[in-house]
Design a protein that fits this description.
13 strands, binds pyridoxal-5'-phosphate, four-stranded antiparallel beta sheet, Aspartate Aminotransferase, domain 1, Aspartate Aminotransferase, domain 2, alpha/beta
Length: 427
């Protein structure tokens, strides 16, 4: 960042004027009284996503059952058509991605498909900082396969409690590992893992590898096909702005096409065979095979509009702005809040920094409450983390600057002392 002299609101405003993505802010429903920095938990609603949801409702209203094959976006093909639109965000070919299920269910599906424990190769490798649902799913998959859910799950340790060293992960890729599941971006520190290197090292050792892209999809570009990653899965309600509980997505590398889905259902079927109603499944030979039952059309519909925005804006541009926003935030925090007890736990290095900043503070829970009361929406991660996500499509440098000055005021006036230092039900 061209940074002569200290940061200020003026500087932020200048950067906003030069920002080519700034126009997308108007596409979103923004409460101008607040600064929303929680797009990595729940992305905001865009007018286009709203429009596409209303269009789908309209097709239900007017077409009834014929909405499956009629209207502008026939429901029967929506998972495939959106998979094609999603594919560039993860660097996949169009039939390698399908919009289906949810993160957790898709992990179950992919583990059920790709985890084939053998006598001397029966372990799953993951990490000690993984999102809990991934661990729960992997333990139940181990159990279902007759493995030991504790002993057969290897969790790579973090050296500093916040980040992972690729070196340590590679050292843990031992001969008894059958499958590796890791995040693309860690949900707490926001560290980006070197997915290309990890894929290469896993394959050298004959191990299959899949990534949870919940925090990278829509924020960081991927090149899954070129890397040769076996599979991936992600949600669409964070950076992809699909709405609460929006349908998730998965990727399967095409060299695995033809593999039978571990969890089959009638939507795994070849589309032209599905309504033959045969009891022998002829599954699709694409990512589509990993669907199960009738898709949640109403939870999928907002993605039609939302993915259009990504197509126009371009994921590389989104990433560039995101990096500039987080850099601006890091510099502003350094300038304004040095000595206030905050520790930045996100990587400083651009290659390793995802779309949000993680701050640690012993009063984090009530600092978050004070931030909300003062109009800045962060999110709290127990026991002492504050996540701040300036989202490229709708946040501005001005937002970041103001949020930092609000935080400084809260600390200077000890406004957080009004609150209890405990998390709410949803944090
Ligand atoms: C948000 C998130 C999930 C959530 O899983 P759902 O099935 O969508 O509830 C899983 N993994 C990671 C890494 C996440 O960030």
């Amino acid at each position: 960042m061209n940074n002569n002299g200290p940061l200020s609101l003026e500087k932020a405003v200048q950067l906003d004027k030069k920002d080519e993505l700034a126009k997308y802010r108007n596409e979103f429903y923004i409460n101008e009284e607040k600064i929303y920095l929680d797009g990595n938990s729940l992305g905001l609603l865009s007018k286009r996503a709203e429009g596409s949801l209303l269009d789908i409702l309209e097709s239900w209203k007017t077409l009834g059952i014929d909405g499956w094959t009629g209207g502008d976006n026939p429901w029967f093909y929506l998972a495939e058509s959106l998979g094609e639109k999603m594919a560039p965000l993860v660097g996949a070919e169009k039939d390698e991605v399908i919009v289906t299920g949810s993160t957790t269910i898709n992990l179950h599906q992919l583990a059920a498909t790709f985890f084939k424990p053998e006598k001397n190769r029966r372990k799953i490798l993951t990490d000690s900082l993984a999102f809990p649902t991934d661990i729960y799913a992997l333990k139940s998959q181990l159990q279902l396969q007759g493995c030991d859910p504790e002993g057969d799950l290897i969790k790579v340790e973090s050296r500093d409690g916040h980040t992972l060293e690729e070196e340590d992960i590679i050292n843990a890729m031992t001969e008894d590992v059958a499958l590796i599941i890791l995040p693309g971006v860690l949900y707490r520190s926001g560290q980006v893992l070197d997915m290309e290197r990890l894929t290469k090292e896993a394959h050298k050792r004959g191990i299959l590898i899949g990534f949870d892209l919940c925090h990278s999809a829509g924020s960081v570009p991927h090149d899954l096909s070129r890397w040769g990653t076996d599979f991936a899965f992600w949600c669409t309600y964070k950076h992809l702005n699909g709405g609460p509980g929006a349908t998730g997505a998965l990727y399967v590398n095409k060299r695995h096409f033809g593999k039978a889905p571990g969890l089959a259902g009638w939507f795994s079927s070849k589309k032209d065979k599905q309504f033959d109603m045969e009891h022998d499944l002829e599954h699709e030979e694409s990512a589509g095979a990993f669907q199960t039952g009738t898709p949640n059309i109403l939870s999928t519909a907002p993605l039609i509009g939302s993915l259009e925005i990504f197509k126009e804006a371009g994921i590389e541009n989104v990433r560039n702005k995101s990096l500039k926003l987080t850099e601006f935030m890091l510099k502003a925090l350094d300038q304004e809040l040095d000595g206030y007890g905050f520790k930045v736990r996100s990587p400083q290095d651009e290659k390793r920094r995802g779309g949000h900043i993680f701050l640690e503070h012993k009063e984090a829970a009530r600092i978050c409450k004070a931030l909300k009361a003062e109009g800045v929406i962060p999110d709290f991660r127990a026991p002492d983390g504050i996540r701040l996500a300036p989202v490229a499509l709708y946040n501005s440098y001005g937002d970041v600057w103001t949020a930092v000055t609000v935080l400084k005021r809260i600390m200077d006036k000890r406004l957080y002392e009004k609150y209890e230092n405990q998390r709410g039900v949803i944090a």
